[in-house]
Amino acid sequence: MRKKMKRVKFLTVAGVISMVSIAALTRFDSNAGAFECRDLVEGEQIYAASCATCHDSGVAGSPRLGNADEWTPLLAKGGAVLRSHAMRGFNAMPPKGGRLDISDYAFECAVSYMISKVD
């Protein structure tokens, strides 16, 4: 009887740990690459102050604001890839566009703003 109780207790604990782990992974995966900022007003301000220098004219191959032909291939790679490129740098773009003083949240607002302008 004692052995049976230990087994039930072990299986219960193992089941709870498994469910919590799966829930945590599912939550992480469902949010992977999602941009947290939906404040497009703040995004526009950050864009104007920091991003427009390159993204208005397409300096060094950067996708121009509102140009669907240039943004569509990037968006097709998914949010996680786009976020990684934006935050860590990609090709000629330095991490966070060289503005390491901007918070991750504010930077995400600028990226969200740029994405919202794709025709």
From TrEMBL:
One matching Pfam family: Cytochrome_CBB3
Signal peptide: 1-23
Alphabetized UniProt keyword annotations: Electron transport, Heme, Iron, Metal-binding, Signal, Transport
A GO molecular-function descriptor: iron ion binding
Classification via PROSITE patterns: CYTC
Chain ranges of the Cytochrome c domain: 38-110
Gene3D superfamilies reported for this sequence: Cytochrome c-like domain
Membrane-traversing stretches: none
Protein name: Putative Cytochrome c-555
